[in-house]
Specification:
By secondary structure, the protein is of the alpha/beta class. The chain has helices at about 1-5, 15-50, 60-100, 115-120, 125, 130-155, 160-205, 210-215, 215-270, 275-290, 290-300, 300-315, 375-385, 405-410, 425-430, 440-450, 455, 475-490, 505-520; strands at about 335-345, 355-360, 365-370, 390-395, 400, 415, 495-500, 525-530, 540-545, 550-555, 555-560. It has a seven-stranded mixed β-sheet with strand order 6-7-8-3-9-10-11, sandwiched between helices. α19 links the parallel β7 and β8 (about 525-530). The chain is elongated. The two termini are about 55 Å apart.
């Protein structure tokens, strides 16, 4: 329940809608109970009329119609208001969670798979509607109406009233509580199993080519079937527990009705209660149990909802590793970059960078090479403040980047990474990510510098051509050039290129690197690459060795 309390501040803007839905739920249940009660009394009294009892048919028939219309209208507006308030709340939850998650990426727990993250952002939030939309309203309404019926019974049929009170309390509170307790562990396991199943699907889609190439289709299928069977088994267990609880509530309903009938017949024989009134009470008591079926179905999902809430809370409370300063300093309009004695390590691991020093002049193009895993990408990420060094400082101009806001820094520094994405959207929208206000002329100018203008102009829809997911409708070289054009469109004075030619053939790679000096002229460039650089591609070539940079010269290596 602590996880649910964590989300309480998000309820406040929606309390009016949720309260109105609760009132309408109560009106619906009360109208349904009154409808059954009046109908039972009316039918019984009508039957007795044939025996000579004088009876006014107009008033009760009007009451039946009235309660029927009230129930229909209240149910309609309950669904309308309740769904509207709940869906708005869930929408706010998604926006809030995404806002809370974004500054925490990449998450310190690198073991979290993308499929699990997607599950938390989608189905885990959807699971919360069990609480907001279904369970709370019927539970409160059943308690209020059950109390009203109990009060009437205690006045007219005291013995039956106590039995009814025990039955309604057991049905509305005790049985659901036992169900919630017994299914909590299964609910947690169900949420985890569902997340595991989604992760298997995403892994299979992402790795389809390798799975087929290495003949692992059968293995992946068996793994998926095992995960699917685990999820099915857990859901069957939850379904069985819910069915047992529902059967118990039906049994309690029957006991309450039998008690009312038996006690009522004795009272009727004694002349303490009239037959039509007894019939009305029996039907009203039956109607008061209407909400219990909804409660049981909802409580059966409570364990999963609580588990989902806890998973969302865990993400939202993950420590933010990089924070903006309390009193930020503006980022200087300067392309000078300096690393001063920078030491960096991931977590408690061995240092990747050890006392690294580097000075890059405004507009200078510098290449950094080194074996895989040596820390080239880490160096670039530190300049973007995706992480902070353990020691030392990184400066733009004469300002430490930790003294400026991340938004200001990212407006000054752009990254073209080896995994830069081409989104399933138009070419125009893929470019406008870098500068939303850019005109068509500016978009084509960036494409021209990236040597992609002719290709785009040759397309029937031009800038409005939709490219496939991850650029599937483009060649590898065209996708990289589109990402480069997006980087060029950015007003950033400092451009970081992290293996920008990864996945390209040698000819495309050479053409890309040869075009780079002109395309990025006037900007400070740090290029991390394994590629053999064409002559004149950069002003300096450095190699990262054992956490330090050494300059590549004709005579060998020397300190940078």
């Amino acid at each position: 329940m602590k996880a649910l309390a964590f989300f309480a501040p998000l309820f406040r803007p929606h309390w009016r809608g949720l309260l109105l839905a609760l009132v309408l739920s109560l009106v619906t249940l009360a109208a349904g109970t009154a409808l059954l009660g009046v109908s039972g009394w009316f039918l019984t009294a009508t039957a007795l009329t044939a025996l000579g009892v004088s009876f006014n048919l107009f008033a009760p028939s009007a009451a039946v119609r009235g309660f029927s219309f009230i129930r229909i209208l209240a149910r309609y507006f309950e669904k309308l208001v309740g769904h509207n308030a709940t869906l708005r709340l869930l929408s706010d939850l998604r926006r809030w969670l995404f806002s809370a998650l974004f500054p925490r990426l990449p998450l310190p727990d690198r073991s979290m798979r993308h499929g699990d993250l997607v599950t938390r952002l989608t189905s885990d939030i959807d699971a919360l509607d069990t609480l907001f939309l279904i369970a709370i309203g019927p539970l409160v309404a059943a308690l209020v109406l059950g109390g009203a019926v109990t009060a009437v019974l205690l006045v007219l049929l005291p013995q039956a009233g106590w039995i009814y009170l025990c039955a309604i309390v057991l049905s509305v509170l005790v049985v659901p509580a036992i169900l919630a307790f017994s299914t909590r562990r299964a609910g947690i396991e169900t949420v985890e199993a569902a997340a595991e199943l989604r992760a298997h699907v995403l892994d299979a889609v992402a790795g389809h080519d390798d799975i087929v190439t290495f003949g692992q289709t059968a293995f992946v299928s068996r793994r998926f079937e095992a995960a699917s069977e685990t999820l099915s088994r857990l859901r069957r267990r939850q379904g069985l527990a819910t069915s047992v609880a529902a059967a118990c509530v039906q049994a309690l309903t029957g006991i309450a009705l039998i008690a009312i009938v038996l006690v009522g017949l004795d009272a009727h024989e004694a002349g303490a209660i009239e037959g039509p009134i007894l019939a009305g009470i029996v039907f009203a008591a039956l109607g008061s149990f209407e909400a219990t079926a909804v409660i049981i179905r909802s409580i059966g999902k409570l364990g999963s909802a609580l588990a989902s809430a806890e998973r969302l809370r865990q993400i939202a409370t993950t420590p933010i590793l990089v924070r903006d300063p309390v009193r930020p300093v503006p980022c200087p309009n300067d392309g000078t970059v300096a690393f001063e004695g920078v030491v960096f390590a991931y977590g408690d691991g061995e240092p990747v960078l050890t006392g690294l020093n580097l000075s890059v002049a405004p507009g200078e193009h510098v290449a950094i090479s080194g074996v895989s895993g040596v820390g080239k990408s880490s160096l670039l990420h530190l300049l973007l403040r995706l992480a902070d060094p353990k020691a030392g400082a990184i400066r733009i101009g004469d300002v430490d980047i930790r003294d400026m806001t991340q938004a200001d820094l990212h407006a000054h520094v752009a990254l073209l990474g080896q995994q830069s994405s081409v989104f399933l959207d138009t070419i125009r929208n893929n470019l406008l990510i870098a500068r939303p206000e850019a005109s068509d002329a500016e978009l084509y100018a960036a494409l021209a510098k990236a040597k992609l203008e002719a290709t785009v102009r040759g397309l029937s829809a031009g800038l409005d051509t939709v490219v496939g997911e991850t650029g599937a409708t483009l060649s590898a070289g065209q996708a990289r050039r589109l990402c480069l054009a997006r980087t060029l469109l950015s007003p950033a004075q400092i451009v970081l290129l992290d293996e920008p030619t990864a996945g390209l053939d040698r000819e495309t790679e050479a053409a890309f690197l040869s075009d780079m000096p002109n395309a990025l002229a006037g900007r400070t460039v740090l290029l991390a690459t394994h590629a053999v650089l064409p002559k004149g591609a950069v002003a300096r070539e450095l190699e990262l060795v054992s956490g330090r940079l050494t300059e590549v010269s004709r005579s060998g290596l020397r300190d940078a």
